[in-house]
Structure formats: C-alpha cells, structure tokens
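Feature request disguised as a bug report, sorry. It would help if multi-protein outputs had a clear separator. Right now it looks like this:
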Amino acid sequence: MKRFVVSIVMVITLVLAGCDSSNNSQGSETKRENLQDSIQTLTKAQKIEMKSEDSGTVVRTITKKEEVKTFIKQQRMDKWEYAGALPKEAKKQYEYIFSQEATVKPAEKEKNRELNEVARLITYKNIPYVTLKVSFINLNMKIPKDVAEYLNQN
C-alpha cells in the first residue's frame, strides 16, 4: 500500500508539473502540493460512502481494504487535469465521503476508534469533472470520461 501511495504521488507530481501554463510558478507549485496531499489522504481511507445528491441517501459503502485500493486505482488520478472553474452546466450527482480513524495518540487504545471524515469527492451529471475537498482546499479537476462514468454508476 505504501508503494502504491508513493507511486501515485510521483505520477501526479510529474503530470501536474506541466498542467499549469501560467507564469505563476508559485501558484502551480501550490496546486501540485495540494493535490499530492489530497491524494495521500484518499489512499488512507478506511471507508468510502457514495451519497446521491438527488435523494440524499448513501447508495454504496466501501470498507474492505482491497476494495478501497481498487476504487482509488480506478480513478487514474495521473490523468486528472486541474480546472480552475467548473463548467456552468455542472450539476452535482454523487458525493463520495472518505473516512479514516484518527491517528493513535500515546495514551489512547487502538481499538474502537471512531472514523472521521477526511475528504469529499463530488461528481457531476453528464460532464467529466470532479471537485476534491480536503480540509480547506477545493480542487476542481477534469477527469477522463471513463472515470466519470465509473464514479457516476451505483
């Protein structure tokens, strides 16, 4: 799993190095760092809930380690492109809520710790875009069409 995380981060770094065509290298560097941090957060998830924006209900839950790993791999994040803004026709379809246990502190027991939300991934109807929310960072990304189809099926 650790190698998988490192591989994803390395690929994203290489891809995003050429994503921002502006001359603002500091802004570009910040976007790369934000996405790298966000991806690392996603790969640590222990539970992913898929919530329908239409009904407000959870339609799917992923908790098995291998299923979470497969889900993350299916995202092909090395193919994501930073998009400053979403298209005007963007209408939310699903929200994926990523949760994990808090870090164990020296005085705490490891068992029965609560899961905390660490990230959200919002998909949109009929357009290949997502919004990745981690902490106070929101990243709008254009994604491959097959990834959008995968995310929007339940």
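(second protein starts here, but nothing in the output says so)
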Amino acid sequence: MIDKVVANVQEALADIADGAVIMLGGFGLCGIPENCIAELLRKDVKKLTCISNNAGVDGFGLGLLLQKRQVKKMISSYVGENAEFERQLLSGELEVDLIPQGTLAERIRAGGAGIPAFFTPAGYGTEVGIGKETREFNGKMYLLEHWLQADFALVKAWKGDTAGNLIYKGTARNFNPMMATAGKITIAEVEELVPAGELDPNQIHTPGIFVQRVFKGQHYEKRIEHRTVKI
C-alpha cells in the first residue's frame, strides 16, 4: 500500500496558495479540521474560496480566516453564528453563495461522484432559483444544480491509517466523507494514526483511494458551539 503520511500540517498544506478553492469539513464546530485552519491562518494565504456548511464563529474555526480577510468567497448553507461574516456580507467585502443545506451536500456528493449536474425541487420559486434552468418532472418543478469540486479538501477524522483510510466519530462525520471525494487533493488530519491494515474494513467511512495526504493532528479544542442544559 502507498504510505500517504506526511510529517505535519505544514508539509501537508505547503502547496496551498492564494486563490485556492478549498472544501472544509465540519458542521458548526463539530468535526472541523482545526489544525488545517490554524495553518492556513499562519500561512496567510489570501483570496480563498471556501466551501463549508458554515463559517465557524467569531474567533474560532473559519471565523479566524474571515477576521484576517483571507476569504474572498464563501459557499455555505448556514452562517448565522458569525457576526464578522454578516458585517463583511452586508458591506460587500465578501462574495457569498448561500445554498440550501441538502443541495449543498448533494452538489458536493455529485462532485465526488463525477456527476456534473442534477435536478432538485429545493429552492424552486425562491431567490435560490433565479437564473437557473428549470424543468418539470411528474407535475413538479425542479432546479438544475451543478456539482462542486475543489482544489483541496481538508477533512478531519477520528482515526486513520497510513494508507489514508478514515473513520469518523459520531456527528463529526457530517460533511467530511463527501468532501473527501470531491477535492483534487484531499488532506486528512486524524486524532489517531495507525499502520495500514489495522482498521476493520467494515468500519471505514472514507477509503484511502480518495486521500492524498494524512497526518496526525494535535491540540484539539473541540469547542462546543452552544452548550444547552436542562434545569
């Protein structure tokens, strides 16, 4: 098997340059590639197009890249937890494509599956559908949506092996598996790295064929976006 391990996040992200299109896994703050985001911040790459379900929060996750004006365009579904995102959007500093969450997921999945376009009813008759091709199927109207692909997909897994096979844990699975298939170069940071052959093949969520680089991450904060308690 091909050994896809790189020494650290610096080596993994060395060729990400200004203007790159990047997918970043995660939902809210759950399952985000914390080490990769920190390295993008350190590298100070600019004019990024980021494809992510959301834009992090003020002061953490993708919110850090927004604060440093490193993001040119966001392609997202939900962005309501980030005041800086809102400010940049309303001031015209940031290009934004807001997409229904299911459509975003399917556009990414289609990108990984090699399906250039598909029809969906989501968004028909709303601003989402302005300028898009429509077609009727069985008496219902649908919008034509196109795949999403990226120069780099940055994903975070619970466990991975040296061949790039990945296992995600619980809800941290979210957008990570489909994004792993849709990047020209997929980079995985993992909490635990084991030799190839140690993972149960029946438990693998992302086969190593989709992953070009894997490294063991460090110092995960795993912040909770909203802590809710019952009295």
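Even a blank line would do. Unrelated, but nice: The chain is about 20% helix and 25% strand.
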